[in-house]
Design a protein that fits this description.
Helix content: 25-40%
Shape: globular
Order of helices and strands: EHEHEHE
Mean pLDDT: 95
Number of helices: 3
Length: 125
């Protein structure tokens, strides 16, 4: 199919008002383990593909979650090809702020080599 980028999961940090998570049913620790296992398997089978993710829904609220994921990956010397996230905003400056936030988070988490991909966004009036 000639698809170069493969994202592991979508919005593992997404929460409903009642605290439930429609996108990931396990714990953050279980997700970080899952992500690392899947990443290693995909990279070993398809080293030419770009593997990354996890398309966090809202970076400021999941900072600690992201850093735990990066810590788990770094422990095994796993480097993301890309780090993806989403951003919805009613202020265009917020999009710029989140781009810088994602960059700083990747650097802080030791994944500064990862491409940053804002792959779901919208300007909400």
């Amino acid at each position: 199919m000639d698809i170069e980028y493969w994202e592991i999961w979508n919005e593992p940090d997404c929460k409903n008002a009642d605290g439930s998570n429609p996108c990931w049913q396990g714990t953050e620790a279980e997700f970080t383990e899952f992500f690392a296992v899947v990443y290693k398997h995909l990279k070993s089978c398809f080293p030419h593909l770009k593997i990354g993710g996890p398309a966090f829904a809202y970076l400021p609220a999941c900072r600690d979650f992201a850093l735990k994921l990066f810590e788990r990956l770094n422990k095994e010397n796993l480097k993301l090809d890309f780090f993806s996230y989403h951003c919805y905003a009613s202020d265009s400056e917020w999009l710029s702020t989140m781009i810088n936030y994602a960059k700083d988070l990747a650097v802080e988490g030791g994944q500064e080599q990862a491409e940053l991909i804002l792959n779901e966004w919208n300007y909400i009036k």
